[in-house]
Q: What sequence folds into this?
């Protein structure tokens, strides 16, 4: 696509979010994502943005997909996370497993999907208590992002399975991406379909590894919007007779974040720098920027209504869910040193 | 220099900890956080069991620390019914002390401190709510914002403008304003990031008639009274910070222990543990130093502001590090609440930026 097409796409996503996401963003944080948003997003081709057209996807190039994620995260990181899950994680895995029918359902928003992947994170010690026999699953999946999704992909003894729905969910305290929620999923003799024999963990890990730029695009959107909100607020909020922007620490910090945001943008969109190098910078920037953005809003920043605190929660959650984890950093170290490093 | 608490204070700490562990279970803390409800029963119990003991300010600090260590929302709720009391104690008439402080000290009524307005909190001298003298009364008009205990307190120590002076802070006065006075309205603010068990409200004041005997001290001295108060209360906010930091650290350690050596003996984790522990220790030392000066009647506002700022930052830092080292296990546990709760400390009772202004102004003034 040429630059004009990317600009048009960006404007389209912004317009879609202004109309369909912004107005419900606070409600989504409190009550979870409504199913009609998935359908509306489906009509735009966002839910299966990178899936093949023959499977009902939009077959967009990576830059377009990254653009969608970044712009969506500016309105609602929960919505961006929904798209990331449908496309980069569940979509990739289901497409690789030849589940073209399901991709079609995801594309239209008729069905939503999730993949249980936090158990693969070395910081997770949740007991795995699923039993699968004769095509039926019983037990509990722990720490599932978006536990209410219609299609649930999970790992059992290194095989991947697909469950349609569940027999109940048990919500967990959830710091970020509240639109999707976090919880345990209960199965009782639930029919499941095997997607792959062995190598399931690797399939999930690969999907996560290949989503480094995508995670960075979400971090970029979170950074950009929270800093923009702080810049706007600091123009109008006065203390001691002067707008906040007139104070050096306020202006310098926010201007510095804008500079880093642009640097990150060019890395994500216009450089050949590997994903593994970008992600640590992106999630770190999002965490630092959102903390200051909240702080600049003073007491108002502490209230959900102002819409800035969610970025603070989501940036932290993004870095826990998607890293860089210690294993990401070990991979990066191996890359830098050309041999195993950072092992003690 | 003596770093030890008395035996009585050590025993009191155990008692406060035991109370918090018994009353603030994870389920209870999660419930109040979810429902954003003020824990009235817990407040009453804390009072009945003498967990708040004003006979010794160290005990107040210790209680705040231990209660917030278990849960900040509940801990602050239980220790904040007296918020603003020192203003009346130090500057109020005997009549005000008897009428208002006695029931608070008996656990029968609740109070709050109303300074911040929708238009500003850091710039206290810029406040706009006015009190106009009419006969033997003052008529108050305006609004207050983010007031802790706002929708549940029986009365407030309120800072308002009584005159326009060249030096803006010379025109401010402090009053006791009852919530049952006609024209007073409180709108509870819901949807806070953290400390959600605490009650926060916006106050509307529409021709509220306040008897002149409710003026605290002298007219025009309110700013000075409130600043004196902040130099006391900031030490207790620092105590909240130590409590939250310690509580997050406790939880991180217990998760790490559960994970076993292979995970927790990696150097990245070890270094993080050392950093958290060091910062908590340093925050505790500076807070106790500030407290020691104050409790011995030689307060040092510079050290007090340093303590408040540093303990607040420590709470945020430790909560964040605790999540980092515990990852998925931490974020799906009570630690996520500590992360949300901690951030308030960098905002209330003087933001970290305001503390920095105070610290540097004092130091630069001394250097001149
Ligand atoms: C849950 C909660 C409970 C509260 N309880 C009470 C209460 O009981 N009573 C009460 O009176 N208030 C209370 N507050 C209000 C609190 O004290 C104020 O929010 C705080 O003082 C900051 O004021 P503000 O929100 O108006 O921010 P502002 O003053 O508008 O400041 C906005 C940002 O700009 C920064 N800033 C301001 N001036 C400068 C400068 N010169 N240089 C650099 N940076 C600057 C600030 O540090 C802040 O980051 C509460 C607030 C909350 C959120």
A:
């Amino acid at each position: 696509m040429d630059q004009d097409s990317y600009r048009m796409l960006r404007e389209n996503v912004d317009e879609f979010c202004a109309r369909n996401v912004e107005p419900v963003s606070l409600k989504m944080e409190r009550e979870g994502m409504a199913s009609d948003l998935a359908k509306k997003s489906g009509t735009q081709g966002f839910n299966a943005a990178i899936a093949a057209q023959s499977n009902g996807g939009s077959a967009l190039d990576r830059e377009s997909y990254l653009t969608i994620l970044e712009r969506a995260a500016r309105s609602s990181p929960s919505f961006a996370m929904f798209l990331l899950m449908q496309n980069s994680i569940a979509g990739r895995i289901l497409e690789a497993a030849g589940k073209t029918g399901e991709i079609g359902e995801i594309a239209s928003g008729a069905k939503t999907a999730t993949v249980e992947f936090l158990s693969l994170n070395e910081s997770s010690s949740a007991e795995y208590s699923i039993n699968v026999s004769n095509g039926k699953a019983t037990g509990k999946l722990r720490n599932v992002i978006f536990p209410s999704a219609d299609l649930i992909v999970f790992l059992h003894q290194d095989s991947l399975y697909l469950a349609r729905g569940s027999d109940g969910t048990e919500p967990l305290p959830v710091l970020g991406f509240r639109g999707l929620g976090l919880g345990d999923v209960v199965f009782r003799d639930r029919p499941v379909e095997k997607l792959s024999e062995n190598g399931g963990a690797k399939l999930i890990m690969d999907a996560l590894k290949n989503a480094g730029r995508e995670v960075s695009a979400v971090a970029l959107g979170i950074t950009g919007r929270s800093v923009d909100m702080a810049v706007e607020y600091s123009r109008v909020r006065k203390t001691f007779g002067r707008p906040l922007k007139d104070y050096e620490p306020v202006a310098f910090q926010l201007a510095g974040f804008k500079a880093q945001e642009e640097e990150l943008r060019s890395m994500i969109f216009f450089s050949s720098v590997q994903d593994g190098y970008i992600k640590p910078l992106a999630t770190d920037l999002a965490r630092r920027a959102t903390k200051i953005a909240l702080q600049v809003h003073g007491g108002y920043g502490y209230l959900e209504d102002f819409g800035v605190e969610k970025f603070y929660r989501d940036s932290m959650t993004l870095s826990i869910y998607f890293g860089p984890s210690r294993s990401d950093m070990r991979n990066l170290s191996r890359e830098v040193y050309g041999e195993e490093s950072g092992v003690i | 220099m003596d770093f030890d608490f008395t035996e009585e204070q050590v025993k009191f700490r155990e008692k406060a900890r035991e109370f918090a562990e018994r009353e603030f279970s994870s389920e209870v803390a999660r419930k109040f956080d979810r429902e954003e409800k003020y824990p009235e029963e817990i407040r009453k119990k804390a009072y009945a069991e003498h967990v708040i003991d004003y006979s010794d300010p160290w005990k107040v600090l210790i209680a705040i620390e231990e209660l917030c260590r278990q849960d900040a929302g509940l801990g602050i709720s239980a220790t904040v019914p007296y918020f603003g009391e020192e203003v009346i104690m130090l500057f109020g008439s005997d009549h005000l002390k008897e009428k208002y402080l006695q029931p608070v000290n008996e656990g029968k009524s609740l109070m709050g401190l109303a300074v911040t307005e929708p238009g500003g909190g850091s710039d206290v001298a810029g406040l706009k709510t006015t009190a106009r003298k009419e006969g033997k009364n003052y008529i108050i008009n305006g609004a207050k914002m983010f007031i802790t205990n706002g929708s549940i307190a029986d009365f407030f120590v309120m800072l308002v403008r009584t005159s326009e002076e060249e030096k803006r802070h010379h025109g401010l006065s402090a009053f006791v304003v009852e919530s049952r006075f006609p024209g007073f309205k409180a709108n509870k603010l819901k949807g806070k990031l953290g400390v959600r068990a605490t009650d926060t409200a916006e106050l509307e004041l529409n021709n509220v008639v306040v008897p002149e005997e409710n003026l605290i001290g002298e007219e025009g001295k309110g700013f000075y009274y409130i600043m004196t108060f902040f130099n006391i209360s900031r030490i207790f906010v620092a105590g909240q910070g130590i409590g939250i930091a310690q509580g997050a650290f406790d939880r991180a350690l217990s998760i790490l222990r559960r994970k076993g050596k292979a995970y927790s003996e990696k150097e990245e984790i070890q270094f993080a543990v050392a950093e958290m522990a060091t910062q908590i220790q340093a925050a505790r030392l500076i807070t106790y130093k500030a407290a020691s000066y104050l409790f011995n009647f030689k307060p040092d506002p510079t050290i007090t502001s340093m303590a408040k700022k540093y303990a607040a930052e420590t709470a945020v830092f430790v909560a964040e590090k605790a999540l980092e080292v515990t990852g998925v296990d931490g974020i799906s546990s009570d630690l996520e609440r500590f992360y949300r709760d901690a951030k308030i400390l960098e905002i209330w009772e003087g933001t970290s930026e305001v503390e920095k202004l105070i610290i540097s102004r004092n130091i630069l003034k001394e250097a001149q």
User: Anything to note?
Assistant: Chain B has three domains: 7-82, 109-220, 224-367. Chain B touches chain A through 46 residues (CB under 8 Å). Chain B has 13 helices and eight strands. The pocket of flavin-adenine dinucleotide is lined by residues A 237, 239-240, 244, 247, 249-250, 295-296, 298-299, 302; B 112-116, 120-122, 146-148, 192, 200, 344, 347-349, 351, 353-354 (CB under 6 Å).
